[in-house]
Amino acid sequence: MNKIYSTSIRALPTCVLDRSNLYLQTAEIIMLKVRGSRVLRTSIESIISTRHMTLYVKRMRKEYGNLDKVEMSIWECCELLNDVVDESDPDLDEPQIEHLLQTAEAIRKDYPDEDWLHLTGLIHDLGKVLLHPSFGGLPQWAVVGDTYPVGCAFDKSIVHHKYFEENPDYHNPAYNTKYGVYSEGCGLNNVMMSWGHDDYMYLVAKENNTTLPSAALFIIRYHSFYALHRSGSYKQLMNGEDVENLKWLEIFNKYDLYSKSKVRIDVEKVKPYYLSLIEKYFPAKLRW
Ligand SMILES: [Fe+2]
Ligand SMILES: [Fe+2]
Questions:
Q1: pTM, two decimal places
Q2: Cross-strand partners of 72
Q3: Contact between 107 and 121 (Cβ < 8 Å)
Q4: Residue range of the domain that includes 128
Q5: How far apart are the first and last CA of the chain?
Q6: What is the pLDDT of residues 52-79, one digit of tens each?
Q7: Which of 34, 138, 227, 237 sits at a 20 to 30 Å CA gap from 194?
């Protein structure tokens, strides 16, 4: 584990490194004691990481929100994603593009008229390119795993909640109350979420002026926000539009989790359909 954390620390921006070095050392000690599967360890490592620190989220949103890393199309990104491995995924032998197309095709079968939802299935995990060397090769804990709001109290429904006691935000009176820096019904798009592939892909889609409906952006940004869509927490921060969009996220989530069947997708056969959707909702080249 020492090796993993020394890599992770180097990947952190300097301003975050100063404040969170002690926290990462504590995290390292905890991880040495954790016994269990790769998936469990990845999930705990993600919880006790700086991705759930307000300071880190602000820094990463600024750095990656510039979208000055790469220019490429949505489909090129789908192909690039095949080069990365998501350690939190129990099904490592399947290429990422299989998961994307299985999700999209399963939705298409049940909701043939909602073409925006098919495309959302295809692109929801593209933010995992943050793991790729051309995007700085962020460590697994900074890209995958459950996400939550930062800047207000961590809800008790969050899995492995006890590890938040090590997080400096947990002890900060500005951040550890029910509303924290937010107000009732402020709308989730005004709430900072822990950094990861979800928030990054949301920024990419929004800043490249996608014409996808707001429900699609909602699904992309909150699909790992299990405390919301599984436990119903944090509803005090939602506005009317969030309440409507949550219905679509609940539908989507079933396909994200259960589409990992062994049904093989003929990529070349379905590719023209998805290229036509990409053309409808996105520019030919996007800034990433
Ligand atoms: Fe995801
Ligand atoms: Fe997914």
A1: 0.86
A2: 286
A3: yes
A4: 2-287
A5: 31
A6: 788 889 989 999 999 999 999 999 999 9
A7: 34
